[in-house]
Each structure stands twice: as structure tokens, then as C-alpha cells.
Amino acid sequence: MTPAAAVDPLTMRRAMGRFATGVAVVTTSADGTPHGMTVNSLTSVSLEPPLLLVCLTTGARSTEAVVRAGRFAVSILSARQEQLALRFARRGEDHFAGLDVTHGRHAVPVIPGAFAHLECEVERHFVAGDHVVVIGHVLTVCERDGEPLGFMGGRFGDIVSRGHDPVSWFF
Ligand SMILES: Cc1cc2nc3c(=O)[nH]c(=O)nc-3n(C[C@H](O)[C@H](O)[C@H](O)COP(=O)(O)O)c2cc1C
């Protein structure tokens, strides 16, 4: 057991890496420039009203752009989109160079071929430690068939269904 006082950033990242997630790209357009970053901090907050949250590092260009634009999209990546996940995780690069982006209904760029995308209006944002928690009110949802990209322990992978019936009281 690691005592609380010894929880440094690497230990924290490793421990949270045991929590398997999907992978998404948060995109926005601020002053005509597209921005985007890979995230796995995506969480559903509320169904009615429909709210989600993402935690964006304070230093990132996309964080400031999302807050400034007041709108963003979350593209949940499909199983074979890990190159896109890597592209949008490289700091300081033009993430959109040579990329064929489409726009959602609310004039924000979205990632083509994503498993789902949700367009949001920034409902609220606040600083928590070294990240900005952004709560988005979901305006539009678009889903497509396929499988999601997974992430755990620093590795991309597949999320494999065991084929049981969906949890009936939940879905
Ligand atoms: C799988 C994965 C998940 C990530 N999740 C987050 C996240 O939830 N929040 C975050 O701030 N950065 C996250 N990052 C790091 C950002 O994608 C990276 O710092 C990004 O390049 C910053 O964007 P910028 O170029 O606009 O500065 C993640 C990276 C990877 C590879």
C-alpha cells in the first residue's frame, strides 16, 4: 500500500491507468482556428439535463480555446483510430495538418469515422489542481456502428464484449 504522502504524479497516473477507459478527442474552433486534444477523462455527469465533463490540462492550447469558444465536440474514437489518438496527444503540433475534418451541426470540427460524437456548450468550468474541469451541456449526439478504442495502463486496446445481454435496468 502506498501511503497518501507519497502520491506523486507518476504514482497517480499509474494507479488511474488501472481504470480502463475509452479514448476521445475534444475539438473546438476559436477565432477560426481548429484545436483538438486526446482525452480519457471523459465522464457522464447528468442525463437530464444531459451533461458530461472533461478534465483538460491548464497548459494545453486546446484548453484555453475550449473556454474561449464556449463550444466543443467530443469524438469518441473507434477501435482502429489510435493513430488519431496519438496525433492529438502530441504537444505543440498542428493536429489538423492534412486531416480531413468535418463539422458538426454547431460549427465545431469533429473527427471523421468516430464511434460517436457529442457537441456541447460549455455549461461551467473551474480549475482543479493542474487541470480545468469543463462541464458541457450536450446539444447533439451522433453515433455510428463499430467498436470503441480502449486505453489502460498506458496502452491502447480493444474493449471486448463478453456477449451477455445488456444490463436491462440500465439500458
Ligand atoms: C490516451 C490519452 C489520454 C489523455 N487524456 C488527457 C486528458 O484527459 N486530459 C488532458 O488534459 N490531457 C490528456 N492527454 C494528453 C493530451 O492529449 C496532450 O497533452 C495534448 O497534446 C495537449 O493538447 P495541446 O496540443 O492543445 O497542448 C491524454 C493523452 C493520451 C495519449
TrEMBL record:
It comes from Streptosporangium algeriense. Pfam families: Flavin_Reduct (PF01613). Keywords: Oxidoreductase. The keyword ATP-binding does not apply. Its EC number is 1.5.1.-. One of its GO terms (molecular function) is oxidoreductase activity. InterPro entries: Flavin_Rdtase-like_dom, NADH-dep_flavin_reductase, Split_barrel_FMN-bd. This is Flavin reductase family protein. It comes from the Bacteria. Residues 16-158 form the Flavin reductase like domain.
